[in-house]
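[step 3/7] fold_predict: job queued, chain A
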Amino acid sequence: MPDTTEAVVVSSRRSRAPEQTRRAIIDAAIAEFSEKGFSGGRVDDIAARTATTKRMIYYYFGSKEQLYTAVLEEKYGEMRAAEQALHLDELPVREAMIRLVEVTFDHHHNHPEFVRLVAVENIHEARHVSASPTIRGRNEAVIGTLRGLLARGQAEGVFRTGVEPFDLHMLISSFCFHRVANRHTLGAIFGQDLRNPAITARQRAMVVESVLRYLQP
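[step 4/7] structure written:
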């Protein structure tokens, strides 16, 4: 009789193979597009970064455009997942706002490839983002999160009234994005290495304080 345990293991490996191949392609495409942009990134080079072929990439993703969109969906999804993992509803509202600002800062700092991809997509006037219901749907969640925190903070007298959730989102993300997107020019002009732990810690505290002061009644 065949070894049923061995058969199960073989079946499990086969079922994971497509998932692992897709994961490898996405990882390679993130590196390629974040380094060279959409126009400069080549499917041949993405295939060369993996143990797969150009033909296999098209099998999984259909086209370069669809692969690039999948990369954007992945990177935006990671940002939103990091926010959701905070379980902000379970925290006091002021602490919840602090944690949201901190995780936004940390995610941008630790994932410069995300910042580069967003910058590239703005060069293309958000063509791929606009065509992705997934990205739009997931990013609406952060506005809902901020709306809920603001309402809770206002009810408790912790936050002032009249704050638009979208404006607050821009306030939080703009500094976090700018310091990563422009770290090379800022470094060249001002001689500051924005990856320096002391500078990073100082600026992280600064953006948290800025948001709290803005929200103060």
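[step 5/7] annotate
Residues 7-12 have pLDDT under 50 and may be disordered.
The radius of gyration is 21 Å.
exit 0
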